[in-house]
Write a structure and sequence with these properties.
Rossmann fold, seven-stranded parallel beta sheet, alpha/beta, single chain, 231 residues
């Protein structure tokens, strides 16, 4: 286990309460399974009750919650349900996403952009709803999956790259908030926000899952506000 800035040993992910947003994708299954196997208490969140039920069958012992993460009132309700059971979230893993693109700039339709923008909307709402939880945790972690397209955007993926760039900027702002909160309180930094970058998640689901579990084995001060390339 890694040693923290305060000299204490990080307890790792075992026993942590981690929310996986957009959990019903292939990457969501891999991340949820890896977290549960490592001893985390997991709540898998998505909008499709049937898919969540199948996920719970594949990964016994996890909790599930049906929620439209692009709806502010619904996300507030999610937070209230979790807080109502005296739970405080130690981690938010944001896997809400999707791809639409092609056809150069002329092919970047507003319909496609609005579809992609839902991921950014969900990130904003969920990270705000659980920001206090992550700041108060002894090992708060926020992680998103971004894209190599942010560093090299192409005309055919302009919508996608723009949304991913916005998501990275938001995550960096969350990271700065973590740093400021710890500085103002005069305490060691215990929360970290990071972005994983990939060209494509296909075939890297297990790599992502291992990297997510490993977030709690790393010191928050060295991890916060970083971009981690997985491929």
């Amino acid at each position: 286990m890694a040693e923290s800035m305060s000299g204490e040993q990080d307890s790792g992910v075992a026993g942590r309460f981690v929310l996986v947003a957009g959990a019903t994708s292939a990457s969501g299954l891999a991340v949820t399974r890896a977290l549960a196997s490592a001893g985390a208490r997991v709540v898998a969140v998505g909008h499709d009750a049937g898919k969540l039920e199948r996920l719970a069958g594949d990964v016994p012992g996890i909790r599930t919650d049906v929620c439209d993460l692009t709806d502010e009132a619904a996300v507030r309700g999610l937070a209230e349900r979790l807080h109502g059971t005296a739970e405080r979230v130690d981690g938010v893993i944001h896997l809400v996403g999707g791809w639409r693109g092609g056809g150069g700039l002329a092919g970047q339709s507003e319909v496609d952009y609005r579809f992609l923008e839902r991921s950014f909307t969900a990130l904003r709402l969920v990270s705000r709803a659980f920001d206090d939880d992550l700041r108060a945790s002894t090992g708060g972690r926020l992680a998103i999956v971004s894209s190599a397209a942010v560093a090299r955007p192409l005309a055919g993926g302009a919508n996608y790259a723009a949304v991913k760039a916005a998501s990275e900027a938001w995550t960096r702002a969350v990271a700065q908030g973590f740093t400021k909160n710890a500085k103002d309180a005069g305490t060691p930094l215990s929360a970290a926000a990071v972005a994983f970058r990939v060209k494509s998640l296909e075939g890297l689901e297990d790599t992502l899952a291992g990297a997510v579990v490993g977030l709690w084995a790393q010191d928050a001060a060295s991890l916060n506000d970083t971009v981690i390339a997985l491929d």
